[in-house]
């Protein structure tokens, strides 16, 4: 059994020592804990309380007790006496501590939290509650009732899941209530609209009506470049002799207080003419988005007149006023008018990004291999390319149709890619293909827009 020793300190006070043998055995190591920081009465009372805990623990150190310090709360655990934070408050703390996040993306996530803060579901402002008071049922109510697209809900859910995970790490929660509540990705993909691909006539008419921006549309559909990449293109990025275009910059949104994330190599090259409202020049979307692509002779002709007489660091495409292409201004003053004019001629509206989709449709129709298309678009993974554009591949369905037709009409199915489907002839036994033609069995699902 543990026992208490009283010792007189040099200052005249009393310290209390609790002693016992580990495990209560005769040969157990002697253990000792000292209480001397308080008054005599406090030290004795604390020693008595500690002795009872040692006895209850079987002559062992109480679980969680640190010698000389007492019960110490791990740094990752929340203080039980402190009021738990609201979801939106710990959410902001979470967003601000993420290291690998661009200023624009951080600002976007903080904006999401502000939206959640004022979102009322079934009469309740769910996300203004303490983080400990939000249940899995609350999240399901939000997912069911919030009047937004399934894609938007999935995007917000990713942030919510991260916030709760951070709350678990900080010790406010023992489990993440968002686990298992995310919309299924298959449903998200099914809910997205079909990709829009322009016909040759639609594109031709759009270019004709685009006026001074006709070349921008032509180069966009001819290269598959994103709007932010086209607007950031410098004259020095275009090599007409080698027929190449280098994509190593893109316009990025500023963060809070106009925070930017400009790489050092680019910062050394920037001048006042390279500035734009609420945006800054940075690196493209992903590592593989930094790429060099080949352009056709037709695009060489278009780009030659665009860069003639310009300095190496001048933008290839600018507004009518000579300023860098601002996405919002372009959408309001150019794109909407163009879409209205096209709609008057019976051509359905489309987005600027659909020019990129159309570019891929051309490449697929012409038989370009998907890995080459992936590299040209700057997709980080071939899966993104296949999921987004795989359904355009025509050869698979045509090949299958031909095989089945041959079998049903009495012909012989010939093995090997590129071979004839066989001549018709009664009584001939169909032979199993020993080597399939090029595999075209790809997914028809569509990757989310931001990934393409």
UniProtKB/TrEMBL annotation:
Alphabetical keyword list: DNA recombination, DNA-binding
InterPro entries noted in UniProt: DNA_brk_join_enz, Integrase-like_cat_sf, Integrase_catalytic, Integrase_recombinase_N, Tyrosine_recombinase_XerCD
PROSITE patterns the record matches: TYR_RECOMBINASE
Pfam families in UniProt: Phage_integrase
Domain Tyr recombinase, chain residue ranges per copy: 193-404
Biased amino acid composition, Basic residues: 423-432
Stretches the record annotates as Disordered: 411-452
Domain of life: Bacteria
Family per similarity comment: Belongs to the 'phage' integrase family.
Name this polypeptide is given: Tyr recombinase domain-containing protein
Organism: Nocardioides aromaticivorans
């Amino acid at each position: 059994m543990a026992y208490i020793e009283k010792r007189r300190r040099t200052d005249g006070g009393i310290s209390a020592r609790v002693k016992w043998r580990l495990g209560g055995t005769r040969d157990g190591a002697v253990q000792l804990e000292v209480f001397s920081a308080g008054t005599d009465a406090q030290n004795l009372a604390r020693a008595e309380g500690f002795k009872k805990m040692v006895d209850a623990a079987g002559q062992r150190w109480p679980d969680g007790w640190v010698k000389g310090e007492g019960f110490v709360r791990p740094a990752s655990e929340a203080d039980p006496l402190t009021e738990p934070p609201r979801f939106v408050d710990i959410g902001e703390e979470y967003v601000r501590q993420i290291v690998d996040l661009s200023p624009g993306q951080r600002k976007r996530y903080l904006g999401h939290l502000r939206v959640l803060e004022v979102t009322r579901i079934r009469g309740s402002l769910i996300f203004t509650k303490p983080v400990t008071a939000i249940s899995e049922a609350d999240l399901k109510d939000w997912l069911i009732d919030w009047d937004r697209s399934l894609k938007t809900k999935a995007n917000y859910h990713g942030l919510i899941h991260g916030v709760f995970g951070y709350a678990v790490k900080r010790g406010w929660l023992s489990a993440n209530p968002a686990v298992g509540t995310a919309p299924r990705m298959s449903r998200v993909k099914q809910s997205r609209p079909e990709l829009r691909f322009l016909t040759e006539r639609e594109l031709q008419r759009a270019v004709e009506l685009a006026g001074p921006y006709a070349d921008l549309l032509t180069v966009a559909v001819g290269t598959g470049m994103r709007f932010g990449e086209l607007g950031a293109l410098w004259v020095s990025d275009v090599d007409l002799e080698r027929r190449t275009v280098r994509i190593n910059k893109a316009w990025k949104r500023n963060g809070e207080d106009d925070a930017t994330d400009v790489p050092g190599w680019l910062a050394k090259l920037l001048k006042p003419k390279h500035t734009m409202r609420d945006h800054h020049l940075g690196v493209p979307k992903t590592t593989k988005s930094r790429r060099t692509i080949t352009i056709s002779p037709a695009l060489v002709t278009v780009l030659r007149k665009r860069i003639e007489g310009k300095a190496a660091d001048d933008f290839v495409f600018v507004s009518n006023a000579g300023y860098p292409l601002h996405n919002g201004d372009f959408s309001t003053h150019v794109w909407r008018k163009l879409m209205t004019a096209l709609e008057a001629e019976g051509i359905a509206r489309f987005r600027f990004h659909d020019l990129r989709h159309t570019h891929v449709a051309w490449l697929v129709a012409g038989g370009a291999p998907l890995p080459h298309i992936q590299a040209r678009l700057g997709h980080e993974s071939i899966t993104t390319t296949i999921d987004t554009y795989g359904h355009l591949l025509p050869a698979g369905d045509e090949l299958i149709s031909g095989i089945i037709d041959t079998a049903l009409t009495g012909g012989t199915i010939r093995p090997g890619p590129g071979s004839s489907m066989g001549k018709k002839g009664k009584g001939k036994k169909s032979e199993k293909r020993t080597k399939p033609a090029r595999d075209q069995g790809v997914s028809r699902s569509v990757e989310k827009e931001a990934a393409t």
